[in-house]
Design brief:
mainly alpha; two-stranded antiparallel ribbon; rod-shaped
Amino acid sequence: MDNLNLARINELARKAKAEGLTVAEQREQALLRKEYVEAVRRNLRAQLDNIDVVNSDGTVENLGEKYGEKHGKKGN
């Protein structure tokens, strides 16, 4: 999600509060919000997949490798 899209989301939110949105603007807002949420989820998943845990026996375990396969996320 780029800064232009974020600025547009904020612009539409301000306009919705101030005067309301047209039907076309409501659709645009919904689409932009959906794209934003998807981007946040992708970023969070990437961060969580890169967490390494050091076990008590000294081995290092990557949680993305351990749990990513169970949810079909391996290789994405």
